[in-house]
Amino acid sequence: MKTGLVFGLIILFSLWYLTFSATRLDRLHHRVETSWANLDSLLQRRAAIALELARSQAADPASSLLLTHAAYLAREAQIEDRSDAESGLSGALGLLQNDLTMNVVPAEQSLLRELSNLTEKIRVGIAIHVEAVNRTRDVRKKLIFKFFRLAGNAPLPVIYEFENDVL
Q: What is the tens place of the pLDDT at every residue in 50-78?
């Protein structure tokens, strides 16, 4: 009778632990998705500001064409091409930032300030996303998560190459 009770408690505790672990992993996956959604919205806003800067009077025609092309690629890129497109936009903004700061009229100064503030927010968003992905990957590497397939069919979260770029 006593061994049956102990065995039952062990089974009950094991089931509780597996449920707790699966819920934890689900929350981590949700955190990755939320951080990516936040980062994606910031990147879309950056592309929109780049388009506004490209259409401004401060940019020369060649710079404007380069920035417009990079911004449209970043806005319309599919997920598998997103990293290259965002890196291209970062590069175009970096190259043209000196030109834009020298030829700025007051209307574009607010755009440049907004771009600078947005770049800082993107850096924070990237850090949050990378941390969420790394934590989720670390948890998924544990034996209990692999053995009991607690991740189900959820894809392994990824860190995109542009997240390693300097903005």
A: 999 899 877 788 888 999 999 999 999 98
Give me the sign of the Cα torsion angle 18, 24, 28, 29. Answer: positive
SS3 60: coil
Compute the distance between CA of residue 56 and CA of residue 64 in angstroms, rounded to an integer: 8
Q: Which amino acid is at 122?
A: I
8 A C-beta contact, residue 42 and residue 114: no
E strand map for 25-111: none
**Half-sphere exposure at residue 143, Cβ-oriented, CA atoms within 13 angstroms:** 0
Decide: pTM greater than 0.85.
yes
22-31 burial code (b ≥16 CB/10 A, e <16): beebeebbeb
Domain ranges of the chain: 32-164
Q: How far apart are CA 153 and CA 133, in angstroms?
A: 16
For 136, how many CA atoms within 13 A lie in the half-sphere containing its CB? Answer: 25
